[in-house]
Amino acid sequence: MSRPRKGSDLIFFGAERWAALERLGTLKRSIKPNGAVWVVWPKDRRELTGNDVREAALAHGLVDVKVVAFSATHSGLKLVIPVARRKPV
């Protein structure tokens, strides 16, 4: 897995298990204040659900603003830093 670039506009992050979501803190520090992290995970699996991603996002100071059917087999959530918590660029 490659390291995210500091100051990224967007980061796409694939996760298959809850433990992978621990990286959200690092990913949050890598995006611009108005950037986003898209978390993509396999649909219909018990190991990880959309609610798990939302819970982990909140724990790392991120909120979800969009959900997508990324493909026939994967879902995605767009996570951002809440506007009130964004530091000026």
Descriptive report:
This is DUF3052 family protein. It comes from Eiseniibacteriota bacterium. This protein starts with 7 loop residues before the first strand and ends in a 9-residue tail after the last strand. The chain is globular, with a radius of gyration of 12 Å. The model has no long low-confidence stretch (mean pLDDT 93). The protein is built from two helices and four strands; from the N terminus they run βαβαββ. It has a single domain (8-82), classed as Rossmann fold, CATH 3.40.50.150. It has helices at 24-30, 50-59, and strands at residues 8-14, 31-42, 63-68, 74-80.
Number of helices: 2
CATH architecture: 3-Layer(aba) Sandwich
**How would a crystallographer describe the biggest sheet?**
4 strands, mixed
The CATH C-level name is: Alpha Beta
Structural class: alpha+beta
Stretches where pLDDT is under 50 for at least 5 consecutive residues are none
The CATH topology annotation reads as Rossmann fold
Give the CATH superfamily. Answer: Vaccinia Virus protein VP39
Order of helices and strands: EHEHEE
Mean pLDDT across every amino acid position? 93
Number of strands: 4
> How many domains make up the 3D coordinates?
1
Proportion of residues in β-strands:
35-45%
- What is the overall silhouette? globular
Rg to the nearest angstrom? 12 Å
Q: Percentage of helical residues? A: 10-25%
Q: Ends: how far apart?
A: 28 Å
Keywords:
single chain; 89 residues; alpha+beta; Rossmann fold; 4-stranded mixed beta sheet; 19% helix; 36% strand
